[in-house]
From TrEMBL:
PROSITE patterns: BTB (PS50097). Residues 12-72 form the BTB domain. Gene3D superfamilies: Potassium Channel Kv1.1, Chain A. Residues 209-229 are annotated as: Disordered. It comes from Saxophila tyrrhenica. It comes from the Eukaryota. InterPro entries: BTB/POZ_dom, SKP1/BTB/POZ_sf. This is BTB domain-containing protein.
């Protein structure tokens, strides 16, 4: 095999959704970024290979994921009232592909959105639609629990839905966070800021996932802010 740069031009086909929408991706780039593609495209660049298929993925989500993965920045053109859902769709797909760099980038945008004073945290039906297929130890679940803990009103919607499995697990997690924070508050008054929506820069590490394709050492979001020179 020659390492002359032509391998960077090798492409692979990805077939997405029931409509079998075809996408072309750069094999080498996505093998390096995603643990999923690393194995799925492992022998691709000099062999005729069957396309990777994602029957249960929305082609629109995959297209948005590619935009973020290639562009290196979350798409700012989402409608404001759709922004949380749009970002979450990309996040869940990137997470599933083991594409930490993209997932963390999108997670930072979701954090910014959730803590923005311009709007409330997403309502429960929206939140539930995102969390239903995610494990309770996922970063997304953790973020939404923390966001709900920082508001006073929204949890009532979850309580009204308490017979639902996702809602009951969510309420247990909210209660655990409250218990932990109450203990902290009784020890140190300054920790009260934890009840506000201010998710400080350093706290982002709580919502990041890292792996060999997206190591923590390379993560801009996990680096502490430069304060002293
Ligand atoms: Zn990180």
């Amino acid at each position: 095999m020659e390492e002359d740069g032509t391998e960077y031009q090798q492409v692979s086909e990805v077939v997405v959704g029931k409509e079998r929408t075809k996408f072309i991706i750069h094999t080498k780039v996505f093998r390096a970024r995603s643990t999923f593609f690393k194995s799925a495209l492992s022998t691709s660049w000099n062999l005729d290979q069957n396309p990777v298929e994602f029957v249960d993925v929305d082609p629109g989500h995959f297209s948005k994921y590619l935009t973020v993965a290639y562009g290196g920045t979350p798409n700012p053109n989402f409608e404001e009232d759709q922004r949380f859902l749009e970002l979450s769709d990309i996040y869940i797909l990137a997470d599933r592909l083991g594409e930490c760099t993209c997932a963390n980038l999108v997670m930072d945008a979701i954090i910014e959105h959730v803590q923005s004073p311009a709007h409330d945290v997403p309502d429960w039906s929206t939140t539930k639609s995102i969390l239903t297929d995610l494990p309770t130890d996922s970063c997304m679940h953790r973020l939404m629990v923390d966001a709900y803990c920082a508001t006073t009103s929204t949890c009532q919607e979850v309580r009204d839905d308490a017979q639902d499995e996702t809602a009951s697990k969510f309420l247990v997690a909210v209660a655990q966070v409250y218990r932990t924070r109450e203990a902290e508050v009784s020890n140190d008054d300054t920790i009260k800021h934890a009840f506000t929506r201010d998710i400080r820069h350093l706290d982002r590490v709580r919502y990041h996932e890292h792996n060999e394709s997206g190591p923590k050492d390379d993560c801009v979001g996990c680096k502490p802010p430069k304060e002293d020179g």
